[in-house]
Amino acid sequence: xxDTVKATTEKATExxxxxxxxxxxxxxxxxxxxxxxxxxxxxxxxxxxEAGKIVAKGAQEMGKTNIDYAKKNFExxxxxxxxxxxxxxxxxxxxxxxxxxxxxxxxxxxQGSKNTEAMVKxxxxxxxxxxxxxxxxxxxxxxxx
Length: 145
What we know:
The chain is an all-alpha fold. Helices cover 96% and strands 0% of the residues. It has one domain (2-144).
């Protein structure tokens, strides 16, 4: 019986050594995974912050452009009023008013186009850091699979 006890003890010792080794490996993998997850999430947060900075800067630039546009429109409106008050005949008044209306419409359409282009560019720029993170995530999942 002592040989059986000795063999059983050896097998149990080997088993528990194997369990301890596998547990240590799993713990190391878990630590590595946790560290990688922290870094991965940190990069995600940094991408969101970068996207926020891009939006803030773009909105500030668009606001400045629109303020400049409003100032220019106000100045042009003052010129239009002066010209309209100096008109001598109703025909000239209607003609001048039509010219100013057409000019105002053309200017508004041009400014609207500029705003649309700026907004499209801003959205594209804003999503670039996020898109980069999506690509990194896709690559990570490809490696994991």
